[in-house]
């Protein structure tokens, strides 16, 4: 429930701050869709504003330019991913269960048309010294560190077999997950199972023992 909906449920008119937050959220979601579909270079701010139901002036009241908007979108998508995928997975009892839950959750997250922002921008800005590309790489590195830690923990408790360096496994995990999410888009509910199977292979897990 967003701030505007909360105000309506409470039976009062939303405040200026709540209206501003609602506008910002709508613009971020619209921009995320545009970045996922067209990338940064082809994103047209007038279309972002129109798709969100606002004017170009409203967009520029919230964001100073396209770069500022894209940087905010990266944060917004990351926050949504953590809430919908990362934090629920963290509640799993074992490292393997957390890694598989992340894969399944990511597949579900990718059913939304905002989900490919990170992948699209990472490809577009690969090798470029640009603030958007730098922010993407920091977000990716945070994910790689989390997966590396879980791989090491799984090897320590004996649920993940030894093999290549944990960081290399983490990078392969991300590649397998992103590739599978793209390839099986539109194939729900099988996308969840196939994503889990893809990362299980990278981790060296026995599918039957992992419940796949």
Structure characterization notes:
This protein is mostly helical and 212 residues long. The protein is 72% helix and 0% strand. It contains ten helices and no strands. Helix 2 (16-38) packs across helix 3 and helix 5 (66-90) packs across helix 6 (95-109). The longest helix is centred in the last third of the chain and has 27 residues, at 131-157. The mean pLDDT is 91.
Give a nutshell description of this structure.
The chain is an all-alpha fold and 212 residues long. The chain has helices spanning 3-9, 16-38, 45-52, 56-62, 66-90, 95-109, 117-124, 131-157, 166-183, 190-203.
Ranges with pLDDT <50 over ≥5 residues?
Answer: none
Question: Which structural class fits the helix and strand makeup?
Answer: mainly alpha
Percent of residues in helical segments? over 70%
Number of separate helices: 10
How would you state the average pLDDT, rounded? Answer: 91
- Overall form: elongated
Order of helices and strands: HHHHHHHHHH
Distance between the termini: 34 Å
Outline the biggest β-sheet: none
Annotation, overall tally of beta strands = 0
Portion of residues in beta strands equals under 5%
Rg of Cα set? 19 Å
